[in-house]
Request: fold
Amino acid sequence: MRYSQLFGKTSKTAPADADSVNAQLLTKGGFIAKQMAGVYNYLPLGLRVLTKIQNIIREEMNAIGGNEILMPALTLEESYKETGRDVVLADILFKSEGRDGSKMVLNPTCEEVITPLVKKFVFSHRDLPLAVYQIQNKFRNEPRAKSGLLRGREFNMKDLYSFHKDENDLNEYYEKAKQAYFNIYNRVGLGDITVLTYASGGAFSKYSHEFQTLTDIGEDTIYLCEKCKVAVNKEIIDEQKACPSCGNKKLIEQKAVEVGNIFKLRTKFSDAFSFYYADENGKQKIVEMGTYGIGPSRLMGALVEVFHDDKGIIWPEAVAPYQYHLLTIGKEAEAAKAGEKLYADLLKKDTEVLYDDRDASPGAKLADADLLGIPTRLVISKKTLEKNSVEVKKRNEKEAKLVALSVIASEAKQSQT
Amino acid sequence: MRYSQLFGKTSKTAPADADSVNAQLLTKGGFIAKQMAGVYNYLPLGLRVLTKIQNIIREEMNAIGGNEILMPALTLEESYKETGRDVVLADILFKSEGRDGSKMVLNPTCEEVITPLVKKFVFSHRDLPLAVYQIQNKFRNEPRAKSGLLRGREFNMKDLYSFHKDENDLNEYYEKAKQAYFNIYNRVGLGDITVLTYASGGAFSKYSHEFQTLTDIGEDTIYLCEKCKVAVNKEIIDEQKACPSCGNKKLIEQKAVEVGNIFKLRTKFSDAFSFYYADENGKQKIVEMGTYGIGPSRLMGALVEVFHDDKGIIWPEAVAPYQYHLLTIGKEAEAAKAGEKLYADLLKKDTEVLYDDRDASPGAKLADADLLGIPTRLVISKKTLEKNSVEVKKRNEKEAKLVALSVIASEAKQSQT
Reply:
């Protein structure tokens, strides 16, 4: 992609109301643009990152047997009355109304849609277990949308729902889903600093689990057990005074940001919608359910909070909008020509490359490369051309090296998408 | 994919309120499930079709320089007051409200979002022309949502917006977009029966254009000029009494379904948002705009209206959920074993295959294959195995042929996705 033709350029200043590192850097870099509090536009660079995160999540959900579907945003309010969540969630529901007077809700999650939907197709123990997910926008009428992509009023979410014949089967699948979540954090580069955190399971299950990434922005206080590398949230520590996994009482207070949660719903929603199946003996039994959420847009914000320096973003390769950021320095026609040639060679190799072809100062181009945070920067100048070379520098390293122009394209990474 | 593990099975009866062929067949086939009037869930098979249509559209938009972005559904109502569309569109706007009392609209199209957004980044003639698009759900508070996926209250839409320094540049791009639209209809198999139709251009342009597909369901009356293969809508024919392209006065009345529209907005929205650019001499000039819409979900409905028979859907290859529908007939272990082996071989070849591995009657399996409409059916039975063969039948042909088991996998089409 030629930077000159890319919609959404960098700006030197972040908007005054950008209250977090991710909002500042993503806005300055031209990844996102705020529509209103908690609602963002994704510009081409931002949409590329979001899509890569979604695809990693999609692959991991498919790997644990998830069937991808797409549910709507609009749902009749009466479905929420059946579960009582019209009251429980009243504060955060966006509502609307049809011309026929029908009352509607913009789904904040989709238990009220998926449970009756799956009930239409599941009748027997032979239809279970079943796992269904979607990647779609959700709506929450937050009183104070804040922290950029971390807490939105309209945000992207992957929600998986699993359906089981009994608690044992739910428990088994729950462990698989837990592992899939760790795979996701590992793949996007957050594995080392993301911990499983015990949280309240509500009335139906002893615990639910959050995945918390340790960062400076940390919105949540968690208590880390260094013995077994899990954490507990405030509610659990106040009640139990110890790690639920090993009993250790010396837990370390940390601030973290939640990047996912999984929850055994048990029969909360199958009860509400009378969702039964026929077991091996033809007896009607209630369906057990689990729910598993992760927000690709929130994860994008968390990644920027973790991976940045004072110059800009430092994207991990797996989610970077492009793998290479090519630019030329100097007014010499020779450099521009070599830049064009290398760009063409990289495209031929099916490489993800952003080519800064603007007539801008070296300082501006280099500063933008640091701000955008693409993993590998390639610089061509009169100096590098004297050695028939290109300067190669990783965004997360200090040192640059010279690589011969004749080999750079052949060594370049092919696009994975 | 094993049919036994696919979420969303066929049903023998369509819901009583399915008022169109597409709603009936897509529901019976387990492609979609109605949430409420004009609002649908996409089950795995339906989502695969929708995604294929979206990807074809995406490729054609990228080919004419479209930058893909993603705008939100929620927008402040005040943006609509600036253009007067809070009044013009009042009947079809879904509205909501934030907890802070802010009035919001669920976007029915995105001119009120894209114009101020692009204005943030475009200042000079050097930043033009620019084309930006998204593929995203839109909301219209239709009084009578009907005809399945053809007229929804929440529906999927690709909306492209183009920005130009003058009318000539807009006109040139408009012709390119027109061709891109024809490419899309050709690729999904509707090219031969989709005609460019002159419609009113409103106050700012003589004509806009619709793309109308000639089908039995035809919601719109159009007048076809057989000389130059374009059509005009009722408004234009009443005013002009002749084909605007060749002057021919003998036009043939037809019923058709609209599958896209393109429109020269000229300066309607740039005026409303004071969107100017500096020309070569530094003089401020108003930006010219075009808008180009196509609904992937509506197109999916139109495809079913066109491509079906009394047994079910007949998907064109380009949008089919899978390319091959494999099934075995008979209780012999031999047939099941050969089915499993062929399924494994096809997967190894990266082929899109749906394998009906259920223990169901031959009649049920064959009827489901016809209903689902996957282009190529592969049947293994005792009879075909006696000739070491598989029966190959195209959904849109009457005759089947025998193909040797040893060559079928090697001749199979690889997945394009």
Observations:
- Chain A is about 30% helix and 30% strand.
- Chain A touches chain B through 54 residues (CB under 8 Å).
- Residues 322-411 of chain A form a domain with the Rossmann fold fold (CATH 3.40.50.800).
- Residues 167-188 of chain A form the longest helix (22 residues).
